């Protein structure tokens, strides 16, 4: 049996390889352009808002709440697999070596998120508070330290409680760490230290409680499977992920939509494809997420060119991915037994995609109705979707 540190290292390299494999499909050219415009537009909007923000804006409590929540979500990355429940059982007493490596990666892979959020908030703190530069960066250091303890704390809680009521643990840590950050921003080091000590005591309690407990392999394996499945589902929006099957949900609250596609003899394929779109999580949430992102940009970014570029790019992404997802169905379907024209499903997919994109056009266009030249957004989203649907190949 290899050293457990070597086991972690080999699994980590495989994990990084898998992430890099799909990241090259996610961060393609048009996505990079959209991100550049989004970051640029967001930075411009933020800088303009800072010029007019008043000094009574509740920056400290707002930042403390956001940072506290981000600190509380510290899900450990263990990379454990289902066979480990058997093969690593004899080495249970030495699993600390494995988990130490896992928690180190968890910390470094998550700390940058909370660090970036805090750094972005620094101009706001300088605009509405009288905090000195030293005090601001002292709180930054405090946030990094709290993230380390939060990672250790969530792991210890999951270890001792098998993950039951994890939301309670996260809520407690969010409150404690949020108060700690708030007291730090209020330049009250004694109160911040007291809050931090309470948080550490809370974490130490579950750490001691986990001593002597058997490793909860089943919980950590399930947690790891869910984490990787979330990544694969996200990657599946950009490229085909083998053996990934989307879950199906009833979504009865959307039954009224079927009125737009009546169930008739000559409409069977269109009705089937439409139900597939509404009830399949991957298809429906793909459309929903990209539509919401585009609508938010249209509503809050008052730079028309940026709105048009983002709306056009997301319209292209939605159309081509939705079309390919609905057409490339390799499973056996009962409609294959009937003497329907070969292009019946392709035509049905095009019609359903057109309905979905008309809905996206209306939502995105109406979201930006308060912005200048909002009507151009309607045209761009619809034209891009139509051109994409006609020019993209069918499988």
Model description:
This protein has 14 helices and no strands. It has helices at residues 4-26, 29-52, 59-72, 84-87, 95-128, 133-161, 166-185, 189-210, 217-235, 268-279, 281-300, 304-327, 344-367, 375-391. The chain is globular and about 70 Å long. The two termini are 47 Å apart.
Number of helices: 14
What is the straight-line distance between the termini? Answer: 47 Å
Structural class: mainly alpha
Strand content: under 5%
Shape: globular
Which whole number gives the mean pLDDT?
86
**H/E series, N to C?**
HHHHHHHHHHHHHH
Task: Report low-confidence residues grouped into runs of 5 or more.
Answer: none
The biggest sheet amounts to: none
Number of DSSP-assigned strands: 0
The percent range for helix content is over 70%
* Rg estimate, integer Å: 25 Å
